[in-house]
Amino acid sequence: MRILLLASAFNSLSQRLHAELRDRRHQVEFQLAGDDEELSATVARFRPDVLLAPMLRTAIPQEVWSELTCLIVHPGPPGDRGPSSLDRAIQDGRTEWGVTVLQAEAEMDAGPVWAAEPCGLPEHGKSDLYRNEVSDAAVAAALLAVERVASGTYVPQPQHGPGWRRTVRTRPFLRQHDRRIDWAADPTETVLRRLRAADSQPGVLDELCGGEWFLHGGHREPLLRGRPGELLATRAGAVCRATSDGAVWIPELRRRRTPGGPATFKLPAVTALGALLPPLPEALAPLMPDEGERPGWSDIGYREDGPVGLLRFAFPGGAMSTEHCRRLLAAYRFALGRPTSVLVLGGGRDFFSNGIHLNVIEAAQDPAAESWANITAMDDLVAEVLATTDRLVVSALGGNAAAGGMMLALAADEVWCRAGSVLNPHYRLMGLYGSEYWTYTLPRRVGAAEAGRLTEQALPVSAAAAERIGLVDRVLDCGPGEFGANAAHLAGLLAASPAAQQRIAAKKAVREADERAKPLAAYREEELAVMRRQFFTPESPYHALRSAFVHKRPVPAGLLART
What CATH number is given for 300-481+497-549 in this structure? Predict the structure, then answer.
């Protein structure tokens, strides 16, 4: 079928559907929503069989939906209506939810239902749930709906009449007044639900250190206590704040924009507050907690299961700042000192990594210098993984990976990913050539021709397609909550394999032969020579593309053509 994918942003779900539909041999074209005339022109030119809208902030014009079957992916079960469906479900403490694919009509979310799929809502932030449980349900429902449209025989279920058995409930947009936290009265559970329901957008508006800030993300703190609303400590760039009966960690903040002032964006909480932050203790969490120890939230952690080391990390949005890279490198070196034969890197349920931290770079006094510091820190980390020859290293991608984060994964001996992962092994959309030794690792996995296609076309790759072309070695068909345990189990089988020690010995020989043919330092030098020009040339497209991405502005016309 010819499918027009319409969305307000090419977000994670839009990318996953784009990749999954192409895998099924559909002809897919993406259209950014917002310009009705441009949409009508695209429909007239492309002549789609169906329009599929996975994420919309604006309505489809009547002249389009009255002439073409338009399918809307709504993040709520049948009968649920309104623009803040998932936010309300999380804030209300719902544990079971769903996704509905319905036909666009004049009344929002009121069209006939083409497909629906249930999903659970475990205790995680909205963005995590959206990329995982909700995305799994949305893809299943959307693919079924497309099949039903293609059949030409399926009649969608109207949301009225004797055949409709669901309660219809329309709820308004969830405003900041309804998200507000009362630190003196709200228990920790309520605070966490409100923080999770607003993550990563729009955040919860609050007062902090004499200013107004949007709070992004929330994790329970088991030990620290203080006066409700008081800041208690910092950890890994986050701040800990006391509730009425406990405390929570808040990883990111965004200053409220003043009228006529510059746009604001999310930053690590400590970075965002800067000099406004009062003197606070750094409550370090042990990298490898003792049995029974309750250190609470940390963005990096290590544990062992017999001969398997498990080094997990989870950075907001998958972005890795210079500091993130340096701390993860220190943790990796700690793991190398442990008596294991297999080391699993990753294994969390959400993003693996998206590479350098564009928000931190944008906020820096000298973005070019910070870009350089960040990419060299990423290279240091990847180099350490590539140089590991005394054990097998597995990258375990429970969620999405992109750009330098994907290349970090490729530094391992094996790459495993969850079936719902979306991979973007390219840098071009940010106007960059790329580093992280990609000119060594990507061609050796997929071949020079495929590496060229992936980096030039700059399209998302599904987990199934990635396995087919050799970008990953294994796809785990499981839910997001089971991925980490499944990866650990498989790593245990790998460590117990009679061939494991032979593979380690062979790996060392291959690395030595590759080093003689062309040293890793040469790949790094060549890549960074290009990156240096892109970072330190003011008119380089990278700077405008980065700023547009961080501030969520449209990309200037013709800019990508210059990359």
Answer: 3.90.226.10
